[in-house]
């Protein structure tokens, strides 16, 4: 375990090294600016910080405030070690996010006991954080598998027609051949029909694989083109339920994880379709796209009478659902929010479009690399 000592006194640093070096690895910085620079480059290897307050330049309070503001360092426990002993100084230290406050001169045995306690707490918190991360990943996998299960039925249904074409055409071709009626033009036309059906099957399988696997790296893709893939995978469900989809005429390119976008958009469409099933026709989904150099705004709206007001604030929560246990796990829209925030650095919001239906607004931040 590694402790970062931030103090402008070489004597204090030397005393702390002598006290703690048998139990911990010690790093030192003699002012706030150097400490923040060090943390910026190597925060993951620091387990606790001993921080003086009265230092030239950036004082200890400001250093602590910045540490707690940054996600990469906010979890590191900070113990103030200072000569300031007024109540208001101590309270301000805790307000800045410190876990403890020790005044100088300090009792070595007591200070070491406090450090040991906070280190053990940090270990327990790290273990809990890792376990939660694993559970979070398992939940996302569960949500994705549930989506794939629903999609597999749609894909299988879409394959019926091209497979029937292949079977019917090949049977007729064999029959003509056996009867001696098969000429070159007829055989060529039959093979072209089979080839087109095989191409459709192959493309559908390729699109379905994008739902199954995560993208290895970011790539440029068209928002409308990828949205069309999702609609193609859902085409039988849309057709059977008489749902009309309006696509935007403009395209916008984004640098990001293409497969994650397909998973996101398929989840949104699946929710819209399930909502539209509960109303009479006409049933519509309207997609609009607005793009600027910095952001892309994608909106998907249906006319299924909207989301109850009491549910709007909670629909992206983990396990929140208005369906029965058999119908849904409450992970689909939660997965959408995770994808937007973690993979696209974006946001997703839901609101009702008057009395017509629900709208999902996704804002994608365009990376500087574009």
Number of helices: 11
The gyration radius over C-alpha positions equals 30 Å
Arithmetic mean of pLDDT: 84
Q: Give the overall shape.
A: elongated
> What CATH architecture of the domain at 217-365 do you see?
2-Layer Sandwich
Instruction: Report the strand count.
Output: 12
Low-confidence parts:
324-328
Helix content: 40-55%
Quickly name the level 1 CATH class of the domain at 217-365: Alpha Beta
Q: Secondary-structure element sequence?
A: EHEHEHEHEHHEHHEEHEEHHEE
By CATH, the topology of the domain at 217-365 is: Heat Shock Protein 90
Annotated CATH homologous superfamily of the domain at 217-365:
Histidine kinase-like ATPase, C-terminal domain
- Strand portion: 15-25%
The major beta sheet can be summarized as: 5 strands, parallel
Q: How is the largest sheet built, in terms of strand order?
A: 2-1-3-4-5
Structural class: alpha/beta
Question: Can you describe this structure?
Answer:
Helix content is 52%, strand content 18%. By secondary structure, it is an alpha/beta fold. Among the domains are: 2-106, Response regulator (Rossmann fold, 3-Layer(aba) Sandwich); 217-365, Heat Shock Protein 90 (2-Layer Sandwich). The strands form 3 sheets. Strands 2-1-3-4-5 form a 5-stranded parallel β-sheet, with helices on both faces. Strands 7-9-10-12-11 form a 5-stranded mixed β-sheet. Helix 2 (32-42) runs parallel beside helix 3 (60-69), helix 5 (108-179) packs antiparallel against helix 6 (184-212) and helix 9 runs antiparallel to helix 11. The longest helix is centred in the middle third of the chain and has 72 residues, at 108-179. The chain is elongated.
